[in-house]
Amino acid sequence: MDERRMVRISKYLAKHLRHEPHRIGIELDAQGWVPIEVLLQAAAGHGFPIGREELEEVVASSDKKRYAIEGDRIRASQGHSVPVELDLPVAEPPAYLYHGTAPASVAPIREGGLLPMGRHHVHLSPDRETATRVGARRGRPVVLSVDAAAMRADGYEFRVSANGVWLVDHVPPSYIRFPG
C-alpha cells in the first residue's frame, strides 16, 4: 500500500476511533473498543472502504502505535475526546518527560500549565526527540521539560499507553521547565 493511502486510513481511524464514532454509526465500548468488522462495514457504508489487510498494515506499521488490535476488535491507544476508560494502570514515570508545542502556546502554558484541552489527559513524551516531532506538527517546535519525579512525589498519577505516551490529568506550571 502506498504511503498516501496509509496516511488517509490512519487519519480516518483517528477521527472515528478517537473523536467522532457517531459520524459513521459505530459505538465504542466503555474502553474504546469496536469490533473490526463493524468498523470496516461502517467505513464502507460511508464511502471509505478499508480492506482488513490494509487495516492490519496501518496498525502494524504505525511508528507511533496509535491503534491496538486485540482479537477481533480495535481501538485508539489514547487521545480520545469521547468518553472512554482505557483502564491503564498507574505507572512510575521517568524523572523527566517532555511536551512538544507551538511557540504561541508557551505563554498560556506559563500561566495555567499543561491542560488536556479537548482530550482526557495531557500527553507527554518519554524523550526530547519524540516531543520535537509532536511539536513540529504546528511549525517550529518548542520542547518543554516536565519534572515528572517531583509531580509523582507530590501525588500526581501517571499512566502510560500501549504506544509509550505518558498521560496525566494536568501539569501545573511549577513543574515545567521552559527553554531560554
UniProtKB/TrEMBL annotation:
GO terms for molecular function: transferase activity. This is Probable RNA 2'-phosphotransferase. The keyword NAD applies. It comes from Sphaerisporangium corydalis. Keywords: NAD, Transferase. Belongs to the KptA/TPT1 family. Coiled coil: none annotated. Removes the 2'-phosphate from RNA via an intermediate in which the phosphate is ADP-ribosylated by NAD followed by a presumed transesterification to release the RNA and generate ADP-ribose 1''-2''-cyclic phosphate (APPR>P). May function as an ADP-ribosylase. The gene is kptA. HAMAP family: KptA (MF_00299). Its EC number is 2.7.1.-. SUPFAM superfamilies: ADP-ribosylation. It holds the Pfam family PTS_2-RNA. It comes from the Bacteria.
